[in-house]
Design brief:
By secondary structure, the protein is of the alpha+beta class. About 25% of the residues lie in helices and about 30% in strands. The protein folds into 2 domains: about 5-195 and about 360-370, Rossmann fold; about 195-360, P-loop containing nucleotide triphosphate hydrolases (Rossmann fold). The radius of gyration is 23 Å and the shape is globular.
Length: about 375
């Protein structure tokens, strides 16, 4: 069963006081700098980190709980919490299948001293839940409150799980028995298949500018380090470069992407109509051209991830490339689910025209990130 993200919820994270957003196949968020677009994107990365077992590490790398908790006014009578939730639906029926939620808090202290086996400022998992929806009813497949953990196995039997789980670790990442707990395996695998792309490096030492090992690569790595292999996979394994050639010509009229058959390494170059006999290798290409080719590799790869997130893909691109980029993104959204944040209204407008979707405007209201037209129940009113 293939799962798609049908809803997303975040509470208590940076500028996200409390927000629930329904999602479709192509989701475009546009807004000015500083309104919290990246916080929305980052919250999704944290959900994946919960599945991979890196959640506490990722939060600590952001400065710890003191840095990541909601920056605005909070109710001091309640414990400070960061809550993330994702809703996963069956791609064939659009029916809600699973809801995974994790709640992270501070290390408890007694008399100013840390209580329990923990570091003073590390994030701790306080609650964790996985709900299964079936025929209008919901069932808890995983329930965790602090150190108490129960899981329902494949036979429908609820039992305590005796694993040595630290407070900084997630149960979703550490219960890895697909035969006994197939639902946990399905949800974890779905989240792990997400891919995030932002800030492709284009400096002289960038992985994009270097040849890579000649290994069949159906999906682009997040840093673009296997771009040449992604192109070679399309050209020499799939043996179908029609979409690739169309995308290159749409962005750079008359240009031809040169993809030699790999030996030990894979490489690529670009021939421009002004210099038809000269191939410009990756190391020679301009930053904007190279970045756009990386986006082509991201969106036209042989196999796209189940969920693909782009953060400000228009960075360093010439305005003439925004319309071709919009067409490229819309094409990809027919094969996978796309989440995109941008501060370019021009790109958002092009996506709306090319894809027939409404871009969502991210705004700041009283210090919190919000979406224009979004109700507190997580629905959009007509605007």
């Amino acid at each position: 069963m293939s799962l798609v993200v049908s809803g997303f919820f975040a509470e208590g994270y940076r500028s996200l006081q409390r927000i629930a957003i329904p999602l479709g196949k192509l989701n475009v968020f546009v807004g000015q700098n500083g309104v919290g677009k990246t916080n929305l994107y980052r919250a999704l990365e944290l959900l994946q980190a919960s599945a991979s077992g890196q959640l506490s590490y990722e939060l600590a790398s952001e400065g710890g709980m003191e840095s990541v908790l909601f920056a605005g006014r909070r109710n001091n009578s309640k414990p400070a919490r960061l809550i993330l939730r994702v809703e996963l639906s069956d791609s064939r029926t659009d029916e809600l299948q699973y809801e995974y939620e994790v709640s992270i808090g501070l290390v408890p202290q007694i008399g100013g001293n840390v209580s329990g086996a923990a570091f003073a400022f590390e994030p701790q998992v306080k609650e964790e839940t996985l709900l299964h929806h079936n025929r209008g009813r919901e069932y808890a497949l995983l329930q965790r409150r602090n150190s108490a953990l129960t899981v329902v196995n494949d036979d429908g039997v609820k039992s305590s799980v005796g694993i040595d789980l630290l407070a900084s670790e997630t149960a979703l990442a550490h219960i890895q028995d697909p035969d006994r707990y197939p639902a946990l395996h399905t949800v974890r695998r779905s989240l792990m298949d997400w891919r995030f792309y932002h800030d492709f490096r284009t400096d002289s030492a960038s992985p994009l500018r270097r040849d890579c090992l000649a290994v069949a690569s159906p999906t682009l790595d997040s840093n673009g380090s296997n771009l040449a292999a992604v192109f070679a996979t399309l050209a020499h394994i799939r043996e179908d470069t029609a979409e690739l050639e169309e995308a290159v010509n749409d962005a750079f009229p008359g240009a031809v992407l040169d993809i030699p058959r790999p030996g030990r390494t894979a490489s690529f170059g670009l021939r421009f109509p002004d210099y038809p006999l000269r191939t410009f290798n990756a190391i020679e290409l301009s930053d904007g051209t190279l970045r756009y080719l990386a986006l082509i590799g991201t969106l036209l790869a042989y196999r796209l991830p189940a969920f693909l997130a782009l953060n400000e893909p228009e960075a360093s691109l010439h305005p003439d490339l925004l319309r071709p980029l919009a067409r490229l993104i819309v094409r990809a959204s027919k094969r996978t689910q796309v989440w995109l944040v941008t501060h370019s209204q021009e790109l958002a407008d092009a996506l709306a025209e090319e894809g027939g979707i409404r871009a969502l405007h991210v705004i700041k209201e009283n210090g919190r990130t919000w979406i224009r037209g979004l109700t507190i129940t997580g629905e959009f009113r007509d605007t």
